[in-house]
């Protein structure tokens, strides 16, 4: 018996739950009024007035017992949805029967767009005087900015012409931005400026990443034009490249090598690299090593080399020339000889070569041998002539070298020959180097 009752309870439980859900849903529905119900004609009149104010043409409205029926053709499906939403919100409406359909007529579909375009044109025409006033304000501010940028006082506050042109360009851009702000404020669209500036910032960031090397070279050119580490025709060495400076552009530094070739070095490399300017100080030291017999009097030979160097007319007295014993090797003692020359009057390479020749001649004339560091290897039994091969060929006599002249030769600067070439290159060209700018 108990088992039968348990089975009946299990069967009836879902039915009771379903009945409770139905009752709950019925209780949740709003009740419909029976008395004081709005008149159907009033609902229809009110709805027609609203649709007419919204210019929803072609819609037929009928109301029966609070049920609104919408029929007709509309230009867009969105109009049908809006009309149904408005009808549902009216007081006394029980339900909405929407049979509106989008029209297949092309003219009916185009008319709303034409109407919107016509409304915008009419609004633009009505605001045309205000737009002309904003345009006039923009042009006046920009014109004033360009006139101020052309004044000469920018050259007086700038270290060189390149920086002055940067100041002018920055002032022109600033005047353009001010003109845009004033024009937008006149037409009442100042809030649009934030959107424009945000878009410009994103675009500028993308362009900056794309042309990073170009921007880096341009910034380096600005810094180099301010610091002026070299001038036109200076003999410099930049990251191993030696030549005379032709010009400094907004992207690269152009050198004329000692071989007469153009060398273009990016300004970023020049700014971050090592620069050796040989022209900034006219005195320059040359240096060479010479070996002597270890059995010779080292001090006397050193003094002889120094006296020979001092007697040369192109060697400066101040700073003084110096000779010292640098090292002792298997082949003999090594003397290091140094002297100074005036680069503006004497060619450096020619002076060094002449000093080597004359010091060597003086040491040899004093009876001091200069060791021969050439090693000769003889292979026993290799390459010996056989009986059938005949006598070995006779060697040609070696030419005798002429006696070295103890007199110094006339020294001509090999770098000075590039000066006319650089001057010719610099004619009628833009350059960021200015002679009157402060030098680093």
How is this structure best summarized?
With 440 residues, this protein is of the alpha+beta class. Helix content is 47%, strand content 17%. The longest helix is centred in the first third of the chain and has 27 residues, at 2-28.
Describe the protein's architecture and organization.
- The protein has 440 residues and is α+β, with helices and mostly antiparallel strands.
- It has helices at residues 2-28, 40-53, 77-88, 106-126, 128-149, 153-156, 161-186, 192-210, 212-227, 267-272, 298-311, 348-365, 419-426, and strands at 59-64, 67-74, 95-98, 101-102, 235-238, 241-248, 252-257, 262-266, 275-277, 283-292, 322-328, 333-342.
- A five-stranded antiparallel beta sheet has the order 8-7-6-5-9, sandwiched between helices.
- The chain starts with a helix and ends in a 14-residue tail after the last helix.
Task: Spell out the key features of this protein.
alpha+beta; 13 helices; 47% helix; 17% strand; four-stranded mixed β-sheet; 440 residues
Helical region count? Answer: 13
Quaternary organisation of the protein chains: single chain
Main sheet: strands, sense, barrel: 5 strands, antiparallel
Spatial separation of the terminal alpha carbons: 114 Å
Work out the radius of gyration: 50 Å
Average pLDDT, to the nearest integer? 77
How does the SSE layout of this entry go?
Layout: H1 2-28, H2 40-53, E1 59-64, E2 67-74, H3 77-88, E3 95-98, E4 101-102, H4 106-126, H5 128-149, H6 153-156, H7 161-186, H8 192-210, H9 212-227, E5 235-238, E6 241-248, E7 252-257, E8 262-266, H10 267-272, E9 275-277, E10 283-292, H11 298-311, E11 322-328, E12 333-342, H12 348-365, H13 419-426
Parallel strand pairs: 2-3, 2-4
Antiparallel strand pairs: 1-2, 5-6, 5-9, 6-7, 7-8, 10-12, 11-12
Helix pairs in contact: 5-7, 11-12
